[in-house]
Amino acid sequence: MGDNGQPEPDFPDQPAFYRGVLDRCPTPVVVVDGGGVIVYANEALMQLSGYQKVDGVRTNIFEYLHPDDADWLAEAFAQLAAQDAGQAGWEGRPWSPIHTRLIASDGTVVPVEVRGRDATDEPDVAGVVYEVRPAHEREIFQRVLTGVAAGGDGETRIDLVMELVASSPLEISAAILELSGGGGPEVVAATSEELAAMLGRGTRAELGALTLPADEPTFVPVAEVAGALGDELAAAGLVDAWHTDVASPAPRSQHRLLAFTPMHHVPAVGVIDTLRRAAELAAVVLLRTRTEQLLQHAARHDELTELPNRRGLLDGARTAAADQLAVLFVDLDGFKSVNDRFGHA
Description:
By secondary structure, the protein is of the alpha+beta class. Helix content is 38%, strand content 19%. It has twelve helices and ten strands. The strands form two sheets. The protein has a five-stranded antiparallel sheet with strand order 2-1-5-4-3, with helices on both faces. It has a five-stranded antiparallel sheet with strand order 7-6-10-9-8, sandwiched between helices. β3 and β4 (109-119) form a beta hairpin.
């Protein structure tokens, strides 16, 4: 029986590997016949879309894709199929990825990347096998770059970088720390409030190697993190720790990207690639944010004295309460002759 109480569809014409292999595949997969009708969809796709198998089997795949994409998607699929059939050396190769939008069972629009391989001539498959991956990373990356180009809220942009890390299927928890002077590390952003709180309570001594410079993502077992912080991270089920530099826009501060996973990834190339991209993107965001702060400061302060200029004084006067405002005039007699003789500098 399905989760909605209806009987699971019977597939007498389908081999056992549909259920025995595809349903154990962690990547969402759907098999579609030559007319676009869904032959099989695995459990991972059901989790992504929210549908049950009885909802989609024997229906057309275009019923679950964004209607605005239908025309060009049909043309793209047809061209890829023709290319697969017509070009020597192309047969059996995965089709180029197509980015579209899946409509989940609750109406949510999920950006996805679809990659297909034609197996219609295989009797045991008799369809096109599509791999469907969430395209959150691509969408978030574009949103971050758009935010950097347009300006705006730096805090929102850095939170998007954390969302980019959290969207990875590798279950990465991450945070950006600012290290300045002899004080403790300050959490700039994190993928969760729990991680931000743990790292915020940690001392620089407890973080140890995680605060050391690292041009590339560098691995440290959580078991080697000292003190109460190490105990908290372990209690949260985190096993591996990573750290890498984030290029800092301020000369007297340093930034580190810290990441944690609940399992030991072998190989770790996926974690490393994700953290490398996030660190590069975070550096761009921090630089843009710092530049905006400097420009705002320069617009309201005198370059020589660093005191508020006319604009800064007027802005301060508008926001100050009546009992907080006072005006002081200072005049130096004969100072003009000093400037005329020795210069303003």
